[in-house]
Amino acid sequence: MMSVDVPLNDQKLITLGRVTGLYGVRGWVKVFSDTDPREGIADYSEWLLKRQHGWQRIAVESGRKQGKSIVVKLAGVDDRDQAATLSGCEIAVTRDQFATTKPGEYYWIDLEGLKVVTTDGVELGIVDHLFETGANDVLVVREEESGARERLIPYVPGEVVTEVDLQERRMIVDWDPEF
């Protein structure tokens, strides 16, 4: 396995997890996954691993749930010593590796950075990030200028979120700007 700097041509990288340890003696690694479902990280045919000298492109040969862990076999990693060199590496993919969504469905990464405007035209800020609750996902919206004010807006399409326009980088919400 050779470490190579990967020219990314300004592609946005999305971090999906990291290598956390070793599994067995044949080069398998344990990974922590931020995907949902967790084992979905193994569905990508190729990862980018953040190594000491840059990003390395590596093919995913196989992966599965193993107890509470996810274990993965990577191309060219054939023994425990090679796998040990990957411990702690971040795992990323490029946005174009994501599956196509149905109309009205969005990846969180696509919503981050959108300008949020009320149905009355009041600008609330920019989507900083999202998080899950038991009932629904929540948008964290920060004021564009100062970033001082933070609003938590439920991501409920058709009720609170009335429109998402990825081309215009805008989301329209039915929300009281004073709340």
Provide structural commentary:
The chain is 5% helix and 46% strand. It is mainly beta and 179 residues long. The chain has 2 domains: 13-97, Beta Barrel (Elongation Factor Tu (Ef-tu), domain 3); 108-173, PRC-barrel domain (SH3 type barrels, Roll). The strands form 2 sheets. A 6-stranded antiparallel beta barrel has the order 1-2-5-4-3-6. A 6-stranded mixed beta sheet has the order 10-9-8-7-12-11.
What is the topology?
Elements: E1 13-23, E2 28-33, E3 46-51, E4 54-66, E5 69-74, H1 80-84, E6 90-94, H2 108-111, E7 115-118, E8 123-132, E9 137-142, E10 150-155, E11 161-165, E12 170-173
Parallel strand pairs: 7-12
Antiparallel strand pairs: 1-2, 1-6, 2-5, 3-4, 3-6, 4-5, 7-8, 8-9, 9-10, 11-12
Short description:
By secondary structure, this protein is mainly β.
What would CATH call the architecture of the largest domain? Beta Barrel
For this structure, what is the CATH class of the largest domain? Answer: Mainly Beta
Total strands: the figure is 12
Helix/strand structural class? mainly beta
Spatial strand sequence of the major β-sheet:
1-2-5-4-3-6
| Total number of helices | 2
**Number of domain modules:** 2
